[in-house]
Design brief:
It holds the Pfam family Fe_dep_repr_C. The chain has 218 residues and is α+β, with helices and mostly antiparallel strands. Helix 1 packs across helix 2 and helix 1 packs across helix 4. Strands 3-8-4-5-6-7 form a six-stranded antiparallel β-sheet. The protein has a two-stranded antiparallel sheet with strand order 1-2. Among the domains are: 62 residues, Arc Repressor Mutant, subunit A; 72 residues, SH3 type barrels (Roll), CATH 2.30.30.90. The termini are far apart.
Length: 218
């Protein structure tokens, strides 16, 4: 059985590697920043995970999940997103509240509980942030998505998910009327800093390029 810390490392590695489709390896410093620890701490944990055949790494090189490590990481993400969905749909948590609680619940080890939770929720495909929930068998698509920052003036798009689960970020975009399935029209885009002027229902709002880069659309 893995420790909570080991599970967090596997999940962080999968999260970071999904951003690098062509070169999925993750650097020590990247992982340290993601987990808010020192690089030396990362090196020590990577050695433990390598001994358990969960990661591959070379000295001063990239770190990557083995097939065994990836399978475990996907199941952790599956539990996390099922718990987020449960909190959101059954206990009336808001989408900016569910992540922190699910971070605690995802480490419950009972497979029977997770199977019953999945059935109770009627086998949901997506969590409250629009992210796909991996299946029991670990089927899980990692794909490069288009962001709101990629949209040109005059285009109309639909919000499908968000990259950032930070509470402040979710509260902010929610206050603008942006949520999953929101229809957004891009009115204007400033060349010098990428700020977007948007029409959302009857409201006109502006968002920075940084915010737009964290909103996935289709």
């Amino acid at each position: 059985m893995l420790t909570i810390t080991e599970e967090n490392y596997l999940k962080a590695l999968l999260h970071l590697s999904s951003r690098e489709i062509k070169n999925p390896g993750v650097g020590t410093n990247q992982l340290a920043v993601q987990l808010n620890v020192r690089p030396a701490t990362v090196n020590n944990m990577v050695k433990k995970l390598r001994d358990k055949e969960l990661v591959d790494s070379e000295k001063y090189g990239k770190i990557s999940l083995t097939s065994k490590g990836k399978a475990l990481a996907v199941q952790i993400i599956r539990k996390h997103r099922l718990w987020e969905t449960f909190l959101f749909t059954k206990l009336d948590f808001t989408w900016d509240e569910v992540h922190e609680v699910a971070e605690q619940l995802e480490h419950i080890q009972s497979e029977k509980l997770i199977e019953k939770l999945d059935k109770f929720l009627d086998y949901p495909q997506y969590d409250p942030h629009g992210d796909e929930i991996p299946s029991k068998n670990g089927k899980f698509k990692i794909e490069v998505k288009k962001t709101l920052a990629d949209c040109k003036p005059g285009s109309i798009c639909e919000v499908v998910s968000v990259k950032d689960n930070d509470t402040d970020f979710l509260q902010y975009v929610g206050s603008l009327g942006i949520g999953i399935n929101s229809k957004v029209e891009v009115i204007n885009k400033l060349n010098f800093d990428g700020t977007l002027s948007l029409q959302i229902d009857d409201n006109k709002v502006s968002v920075s390029q940084k915010i737009a880069e964290n909103i996935y659309i289709r």
